[in-house]
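User: Hi! I'm working on a homework problem where we have to compare a predicted structure to a textbook description. Could you give me the structure for the chain below?
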Amino acid sequence: MKVSGLLIAFAVGGLLGAQDRSRVELGASAVRFRVDSLESVGPSARWLRLRASGAHALLVGVGGVVGLDGASGSVELTGRTFVPLGSRLRAEFEAEGSALGSSGTASPATVATSAVLNARLSRSYGERGGAWFGGRGSLSARRPDLLSGAGVGGGTWWRIGDGGIAGSIERAWSVAQLFTGPGRRGYAGTVPVAYTEATARGHHEGERASIEASATMRRDPGAEQLVEWGSSIDASFRQTPTRALFVSLASYLPDFVHGADAARSVTVGLRLFESAPRTTARERRARPVVQVTGDSAIRTLQVLAPGARSVEVMGDFTEWLPVLLFGTGGVFSTTASMPAGNRRLVIRIDGGPWVPPSNTPVVDDDFGGRVGLVLVP
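Assistant: Happy to help. Predicted structure tokens:
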């Protein structure tokens, strides 16, 4: 399973600051690989860890399904960074390594490892959305071959209320392996593949539930069907601030880059340790207001955030390290040494995203994010 979409979502929507997020999924899955007619039904598990700071982010993902007829699993490590090229323009670079495996088939290609490098140029339109254009190159080792690939494409994203939509189109060139006979035991060589793929995604988040859906259309003149479709839908229902029930259904197209065969899957289970999909609903109602009092030796920073449970602040006066404020009844404060002048800061409420205070001017930071500007006398 690919997890780099989470990293892309972070990079598109994230502000400057350290973020450390984990998610564990425990459930039951049914997976059917179309080519091998292999079915795997049994317990499944998945672990994701995102660590992000400033312009850099690292994502680790491990997952697997164990059934009576075999097991399949994946490991993925993705690193991402960006370089600001102006107030709205930036260059993004992403490197990914992954391994996929399945023990339930007699095919010689039971394990695939791959390395992918993406480079993009993106332009944002404030906090509403943006567009990107870029290319990628890849290498995949799937016995007995070393397979290469490349692609070029572009896309756009847009925020709408408590959710958003995104779309992309790519022209890709890769290599496919051919197998014959029962269980695909016979190896027949490789064949070049060239196809055009368009994908549309949408998501909506609420305090108690969230839903995400995608649809992919691939046009491949060399395939058995000229046009193929893939889709996925994921819905989660919050039980507690750190636990949610989820249902996920997907129909995957062949992934020539990572060496994954076409498959259909259904998973039902629990998500643990993930913050609520929209604790930011409270954050919107809170609309944090910041005040700074005192002299240059020691100042009191006070945040008014009605309805908030916890408030953190970070800025140039904290060396961009998060500081937890103390308080109740919607009033939170801390003391700090803060020189006079224009100070930059962002605020986080109830573990949500880092946002500028509502009563300060908003400016671009050095990493493509948005921060509040406070004049300290």
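For your comparison, note the following. The chain has two helices and 24 strands. Residues 1-18, 280-284 have pLDDT under 50 and may be disordered. Good luck with the assignment!
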